[in-house]
Design a protein that fits this description.
Length: 373
Amino acid sequence: MNPVTAYGFMKNPAINDPLLPANASRTIFETLASPFERVTLKRSMRLFDASIGLKPGIAGLPSAEVLVHVITGHESHEALVRVLVGAEYQNFRNLVRKVGSQRGDTVKDLSKQTGLTEDNLVALAHGNKDGALVPDLLKLFEVGLGAPVWAFKVFTNHTLNCPSCGKNFFEDVDTSWKAKPLALGKPEYEFAERFLTAILGAILIAVTVMGKQISTTSLELLGSLVDEKQYPIGNWLKLVCKAYGVKTLTELELRLALRKVTDTNGKPISGRRLADWARGTNLISVDNSYCLLAPLGGNDELKMALLAARAFAFVEEFLVAADARPYAPDAALVRQVIKTRLEELNMKLVHGLKIFQTKMIAKSASALPESVA
């Protein structure tokens, strides 16, 4: 489904949202693409500074471009479009921004290059000289974050009061984050919370809706990507080493050389590059990660694990940048905070799924005729 068709589908039909009061409805887009709230950074981010679009000390709305960066590895949706459209990029850009006069066969050529219909291509044209090149594409990435967050909330939308304090077990966002050893404001920890719940929600969707059998990134083992001693991508590379039957990055370098694995530019992947990726000196691109996985048959487990690791890396960097103290918190401390919160969220989801299942069984039983029940 291309961006225009998908966005049109999400924007129009109303759906029943279990998180809303009875008889209330919203469009799919309204349900899944909640806009970011303003957050304030104390210091600049390192690898995601350009894509998040925030300046230290100034409250602002994080750019949706950061979702493109986390998910695809491209720092902006326009950079992604440039790759997808290829040699026809300038013609595509001129068409969308309505710059100059277009040749009669321009739309036909673009249709062949992109796979979009001519009508859909024309519908993308907005004539804005500035701003997002393809706003609908950015909105789809917002839905890409919102859908798993919504799934997580649906399965944890319960009441389970503590017999001692009376607080709802499932409503712990404020109490949990305020107890963590970081100096974060409510907008900042809620922003980080959204990404962590999205990771769990994405696994939930993959397992329950798409029928994926994913062991490495299951709810129980997802925490293996978060270790206070290691950058998340480093933990992911450990999984890659295991898949190749080696134990170290040095051994992985040799194994890659033997299998003639190269990067997207056709160059060998050196041990130094592997080490830089593992430390977070540079962020491994999604395309290069797929080069690593090609001899393994693509490996859907490791692809999903990579996406989770990239999201963890982003949350780690965001929390370091958002901590309000004069000095940046130690990365190991931030990773421990992420791991602890992930475990708490996982526990909420496990209990939520059990309650949801119990409710469904009870609902099914009540619908049976008395003679059957």
